Amino acid sequence: MSEEDILQKAATILRDTDSSLGPSFRLHGAVKLADGRVALKACTEAEAGKIRKLGDDWVTALADGMQVSRPSYPVIIHGVPAEFDPGSAIATSVLHNSNKMFISEVVDIRNIRRLYGNSDRYISKTAYSLVLTLGTQDAANASVLGKICRTERFVQPPPQCYHCQAWNHISSVCPKRNDTSSLACARCSKNHNTKTCSCPHSPQCTNLRSCTHIVAKCANCHGPHKSFDNECPVKQQCLTAHRAQHDLSGCYFGDFDPSAPVRAGGRDL
Ligand SMILES: [Zn+2]
Ligand SMILES: [Zn+2]
Ligand SMILES: [Zn+2]
Ligand SMILES: [Zn+2]
Question: Could you name the domain of life of the organism this protein comes from (predicted)?
Fold first, then answer.
Protein backbone atom coordinates (compact mmCIF):
# COMPACT_ATOMS: atom_id res chain seq x y z
CA MET A 1 0.00 0.00 0.00
CA SER A 2 1.41 3.41 -0.90
CA GLU A 3 1.49 6.28 1.59
CA GLU A 4 -1.21 8.04 -0.45
CA ASP A 5 -3.42 4.90 -0.30
CA ILE A 6 -2.89 4.65 3.47
CA LEU A 7 -3.77 8.33 3.85
CA GLN A 8 -7.05 8.02 1.93
CA LYS A 9 -8.08 4.68 3.44
CA ALA A 10 -7.30 5.77 7.02
CA ALA A 11 -9.29 8.99 6.59
CA THR A 12 -12.31 7.04 5.26
CA ILE A 13 -12.18 4.53 8.13
CA LEU A 14 -11.85 7.34 10.68
CA ARG A 15 -14.82 9.25 9.21
CA ASP A 16 -16.91 6.06 9.45
CA THR A 17 -15.69 5.24 12.96
CA ASP A 18 -16.16 8.68 14.55
CA SER A 19 -18.97 10.75 13.05
CA SER A 20 -17.98 13.76 15.15
CA LEU A 21 -14.96 14.18 12.85
CA GLY A 22 -17.40 15.33 10.16
CA PRO A 23 -17.85 14.42 6.47
CA SER A 24 -15.02 16.69 5.28
CA PHE A 25 -12.48 15.20 7.69
CA ARG A 26 -9.08 14.42 6.18
CA LEU A 27 -5.63 13.53 7.49
CA HIS A 28 -2.63 15.78 6.98
CA GLY A 29 -0.20 13.02 6.04
CA ALA A 30 0.96 9.40 6.30
CA VAL A 31 4.57 8.22 6.47
CA LYS A 32 5.96 4.69 6.44
CA LEU A 33 8.72 4.66 9.06
CA ALA A 34 11.97 2.71 8.75
CA ASP A 35 11.03 0.54 11.74
CA GLY A 36 7.95 -0.82 9.95
CA ARG A 37 5.42 1.44 11.66
CA VAL A 38 3.19 3.99 9.95
CA ALA A 39 2.86 7.53 11.30
CA LEU A 40 -0.36 9.41 10.65
CA LYS A 41 -0.63 13.14 11.19
CA ALA A 42 -3.92 14.87 11.89
CA CYS A 43 -4.61 18.44 10.70
CA THR A 44 -5.53 19.78 14.14
CA GLU A 45 -4.66 18.89 17.72
CA ALA A 46 -8.39 18.46 18.48
CA GLU A 47 -8.73 15.82 15.76
CA ALA A 48 -5.52 14.08 16.88
CA GLY A 49 -7.00 13.94 20.41
CA LYS A 50 -10.21 12.33 19.13
CA ILE A 51 -8.26 9.75 17.12
CA ARG A 52 -6.06 8.86 20.10
CA LYS A 53 -9.20 8.13 22.13
CA LEU A 54 -10.69 5.76 19.54
CA GLY A 55 -9.04 2.61 20.82
CA ASP A 56 -7.32 0.03 18.64
CA ASP A 57 -10.12 -1.44 16.51
CA TRP A 58 -10.14 1.05 13.64
CA VAL A 59 -6.54 0.26 12.59
CA THR A 60 -7.34 -3.43 12.01
CA ALA A 61 -9.69 -2.19 9.26
CA LEU A 62 -6.68 -0.47 7.69
CA ALA A 63 -4.67 -3.68 7.46
CA ASP A 64 -4.82 -7.10 9.10
CA GLY A 65 -2.62 -7.43 12.14
CA MET A 66 -2.10 -3.70 12.57
CA GLN A 67 -2.03 -2.28 16.08
CA VAL A 68 -1.94 1.20 17.54
CA SER A 69 1.48 1.95 18.93
CA ARG A 70 0.95 3.87 22.18
CA PRO A 71 3.60 6.20 23.49
CA SER A 72 5.63 4.34 26.09
CA TYR A 73 8.39 5.54 28.35
CA PRO A 74 11.12 3.03 29.04
CA VAL A 75 13.57 3.81 31.82
CA ILE A 76 16.65 1.93 32.85
CA ILE A 77 17.13 1.32 36.57
CA HIS A 78 20.69 0.65 37.68
CA GLY A 79 21.85 -1.30 40.72
CA VAL A 80 18.70 -3.37 41.16
CA PRO A 81 19.26 -5.99 43.91
CA ALA A 82 19.81 -9.43 42.35
CA GLU A 83 17.03 -10.98 44.47
CA PHE A 84 14.42 -8.96 42.54
CA ASP A 85 13.20 -11.28 39.79
CA PRO A 86 11.38 -9.42 36.98
CA GLY A 87 9.98 -12.75 35.76
CA SER A 88 8.14 -13.58 38.97
CA ALA A 89 4.35 -13.33 39.12
CA ILE A 90 4.47 -10.64 41.81
CA ALA A 91 7.23 -8.51 40.21
CA THR A 92 4.83 -5.85 38.91
CA SER A 93 3.00 -5.41 42.21
CA VAL A 94 6.26 -5.41 44.21
CA LEU A 95 7.65 -2.66 41.97
CA HIS A 96 4.41 -0.70 42.06
CA ASN A 97 4.18 -0.86 45.86
CA SER A 98 7.62 0.67 46.34
CA ASN A 99 7.09 3.39 43.68
CA LYS A 100 3.52 4.59 44.25
CA MET A 101 4.68 8.19 44.52
CA PHE A 102 5.38 8.30 40.79
CA ILE A 103 3.61 5.27 39.29
CA SER A 104 0.02 5.92 40.33
CA GLU A 105 -1.63 3.01 38.52
CA VAL A 106 -0.26 -0.52 38.37
CA VAL A 107 -1.43 -0.73 34.71
CA ASP A 108 1.11 1.99 33.92
CA ILE A 109 3.76 -0.70 34.30
CA ARG A 110 3.77 -2.16 30.81
CA ASN A 111 6.86 -4.31 30.96
CA ILE A 112 9.79 -5.18 33.24
CA ARG A 113 12.85 -7.00 31.99
CA ARG A 114 16.55 -7.35 32.65
CA LEU A 115 18.67 -5.21 30.31
CA TYR A 116 20.54 -8.25 28.97
CA GLY A 117 17.84 -10.94 28.98
CA ASN A 118 17.65 -13.82 31.40
CA SER A 119 21.11 -15.18 30.88
CA ASP A 120 23.44 -17.04 33.24
CA ARG A 121 25.62 -13.97 33.53
CA TYR A 122 23.50 -12.82 36.48
CA ILE A 123 24.17 -15.82 38.71
CA SER A 124 27.22 -14.36 40.45
CA LYS A 125 26.00 -10.73 40.48
CA THR A 126 24.56 -8.85 43.46
CA ALA A 127 22.87 -6.18 41.32
CA TYR A 128 21.86 -5.66 37.71
CA SER A 129 20.13 -3.17 35.39
CA LEU A 130 16.43 -3.39 34.76
CA VAL A 131 14.38 -1.93 31.89
CA LEU A 132 11.01 -0.70 33.09
CA THR A 133 8.48 0.40 30.46
CA LEU A 134 5.89 2.85 31.74
CA GLY A 135 2.69 4.11 30.17
CA THR A 136 3.20 7.59 31.59
CA GLN A 137 6.12 9.94 31.38
CA ASP A 138 6.56 10.24 35.15
CA ALA A 139 9.97 8.63 35.30
CA ALA A 140 11.68 9.62 38.51
CA ASN A 141 14.18 7.66 40.54
CA ALA A 142 12.77 4.22 41.12
CA SER A 143 13.15 2.21 44.26
CA VAL A 144 13.39 -1.56 44.23
CA LEU A 145 13.11 -3.69 47.37
CA GLY A 146 13.63 -0.63 49.54
CA LYS A 147 16.76 0.52 47.74
CA ILE A 148 16.67 3.84 45.84
CA CYS A 149 18.17 3.16 42.41
CA ARG A 150 19.66 5.47 39.82
CA THR A 151 17.19 5.76 36.96
CA GLU A 152 17.59 7.20 33.47
CA ARG A 153 15.74 7.15 30.18
CA PHE A 154 16.22 4.04 28.13
CA VAL A 155 16.59 4.56 24.41
CA GLN A 156 15.87 1.56 22.22
CA PRO A 157 18.98 0.79 20.18
CA PRO A 158 18.68 1.55 16.44
CA PRO A 159 17.45 -1.35 14.30
CA GLN A 160 19.81 -3.37 12.09
CA CYS A 161 18.57 -4.80 8.79
CA TYR A 162 18.50 -8.63 8.56
CA HIS A 163 18.80 -8.37 4.78
CA CYS A 164 21.68 -5.96 4.06
CA GLN A 165 22.97 -5.54 7.69
CA ALA A 166 22.86 -1.72 7.44
CA TRP A 167 21.66 0.25 10.46
CA ASN A 168 18.51 2.33 11.08
CA HIS A 169 16.02 0.31 9.07
CA ILE A 170 14.43 -3.14 9.25
CA SER A 171 14.40 -5.70 6.43
CA SER A 172 10.72 -5.22 5.46
CA VAL A 173 11.47 -1.62 4.46
CA CYS A 174 15.03 -2.26 3.24
CA PRO A 175 15.62 -0.25 0.03
CA LYS A 176 17.51 -3.29 -1.32
CA ARG A 177 15.03 -5.97 -0.20
CA ASN A 178 14.19 -7.07 -3.76
CA ASP A 179 17.83 -7.29 -4.78
CA THR A 180 19.00 -10.80 -3.82
CA SER A 181 22.63 -9.90 -4.47
CA SER A 182 22.49 -7.46 -1.54
CA LEU A 183 21.54 -10.19 0.97
CA ALA A 184 24.45 -10.35 3.42
CA CYS A 185 25.17 -12.75 6.29
CA ALA A 186 25.72 -11.00 9.65
CA ARG A 187 28.64 -13.35 10.44
CA CYS A 188 30.63 -13.70 7.21
CA SER A 189 28.94 -11.07 4.97
CA LYS A 190 28.59 -13.67 2.17
CA ASN A 191 25.44 -13.73 0.07
CA HIS A 192 23.24 -15.93 2.30
CA ASN A 193 20.79 -15.55 5.17
CA THR A 194 22.52 -15.37 8.59
CA LYS A 195 20.40 -18.34 9.75
CA THR A 196 21.86 -20.58 7.04
CA CYS A 197 25.50 -19.68 7.75
CA SER A 198 27.43 -22.85 8.56
CA CYS A 199 30.83 -23.97 9.78
CA PRO A 200 33.14 -25.00 6.91
CA HIS A 201 35.18 -27.35 9.15
CA SER A 202 34.85 -31.12 9.28
CA PRO A 203 33.42 -32.18 11.65
CA GLN A 204 31.11 -29.17 11.60
CA CYS A 205 30.55 -27.07 14.72
CA THR A 206 26.91 -27.01 15.72
CA ASN A 207 27.26 -23.94 17.92
CA LEU A 208 28.22 -21.01 15.68
CA ARG A 209 28.81 -18.74 18.69
CA SER A 210 31.86 -20.78 19.67
CA CYS A 211 32.89 -21.76 16.10
CA THR A 212 36.28 -20.32 15.14
CA HIS A 213 36.26 -21.57 11.51
CA ILE A 214 33.89 -19.08 9.92
CA VAL A 215 35.91 -16.07 8.75
CA ALA A 216 34.10 -13.08 10.26
CA LYS A 217 33.59 -10.20 7.88
CA CYS A 218 31.46 -7.11 8.40
CA ALA A 219 28.99 -6.19 5.66
CA ASN A 220 29.21 -2.52 6.63
CA CYS A 221 32.93 -1.74 7.06
CA HIS A 222 34.33 -5.00 5.61
CA GLY A 223 36.47 -5.39 8.76
CA PRO A 224 37.27 -8.79 10.35
CA HIS A 225 34.28 -8.90 12.71
CA LYS A 226 30.58 -9.77 12.59
CA SER A 227 28.26 -7.01 11.33
CA PHE A 228 26.68 -6.59 14.80
CA ASP A 229 29.94 -6.51 16.81
CA ASN A 230 30.44 -3.52 19.10
CA GLU A 231 33.96 -2.96 17.78
CA CYS A 232 32.61 -2.05 14.31
CA PRO A 233 33.32 1.64 13.56
CA VAL A 234 30.11 1.92 11.49
CA LYS A 235 28.06 0.63 14.45
CA GLN A 236 29.92 2.96 16.85
CA GLN A 237 29.19 5.93 14.61
CA CYS A 238 25.55 4.93 14.28
CA LEU A 239 25.14 4.53 18.07
CA THR A 240 26.81 7.90 18.73
CA ALA A 241 24.48 9.66 16.28
CA HIS A 242 21.49 7.83 17.79
CA ARG A 243 22.45 8.92 21.34
CA ALA A 244 22.91 12.52 20.19
CA GLN A 245 19.43 12.43 18.68
CA HIS A 246 17.87 11.14 21.91
CA ASP A 247 19.09 13.31 24.74
CA LEU A 248 19.75 10.81 27.51
CA SER A 249 20.43 13.32 30.24
CA GLY A 250 16.92 14.25 31.30
CA CYS A 251 13.88 12.45 32.57
CA TYR A 252 10.62 12.53 30.66
CA PHE A 253 9.05 15.46 32.46
CA GLY A 254 8.05 18.21 30.09
CA ASP A 255 9.40 16.81 26.85
CA PHE A 256 6.27 15.05 25.62
CA ASP A 257 5.04 16.54 22.37
CA PRO A 258 1.22 16.41 22.27
CA SER A 259 1.21 17.19 18.55
CA ALA A 260 3.33 14.11 17.83
CA PRO A 261 1.71 11.89 15.20
CA VAL A 262 -0.63 9.08 16.17
CA ARG A 263 1.27 5.95 15.26
CA ALA A 264 -0.01 2.68 13.96
CA GLY A 265 2.42 -0.18 13.88
CA GLY A 266 2.87 -3.91 13.79
CA ARG A 267 3.43 -4.70 10.13
CA ASP A 268 4.66 -3.41 6.86
CA LEU A 269 1.81 -2.29 4.63
ZN1 LIG B 1 18.63 -3.28 4.52
ZN1 LIG C 1 27.60 -16.60 6.69
ZN1 LIG D 1 33.45 -24.35 13.25
ZN1 LIG E 1 32.17 -3.40 10.76
Answer: Eukaryota
Nearest alpha carbon to residue 140 among 72, 71, 77, 70:
77
Ligand at minimal distance from the CA of 236 is 4
- Ligand 3 centre from 215 Cα, in Å? 10
**Distance (Å) from CA 238 to ligand 4 centroid:** 11
Nearest ligand, CA 162: 1
Q: How far is the CA of 243 from the centre of ligand 2 (A)?
A: 30
**pTM attached to this predicted model:** 0.60
Instruction: Give the number of whichever ligand sits closest to the CA of residue 166.
Output: 1
In angstroms, rounded to a whole number, what is the distance separating the alpha carbons of residues 56 and 17?
A: 11
Per-residue pLDDT of the chain (269 residues; tens, 9 = 90+): 888 999 999 999 999 999 999 999 999 988 888 777 888 888 888 898 888 888 778 888 888 778 887 777 888 888 888 889 888 999 999 888 888 877 778 888 888 999 876 656 666 678 888 898 888 776 666 777 777 788 877 877 889 999 999 999 989 889 999 999 999 999 999 999 999 999 999 999 988 888 999 999 999 999 999 999 999 999 999 988 887 776 554 444 444 343 444 444 433 33
**Strands (DSSP E) found in the chain:** 27-32, 38-42, 67-69, 73-81, 109-114, 127-134, 143-144, 147-148, 150-153, 262-265
Query: Ligand 2 center to residue 211 CA distance, Å?
Result: 12
- Nearest-ligand number for the alpha carbon of 214: 3
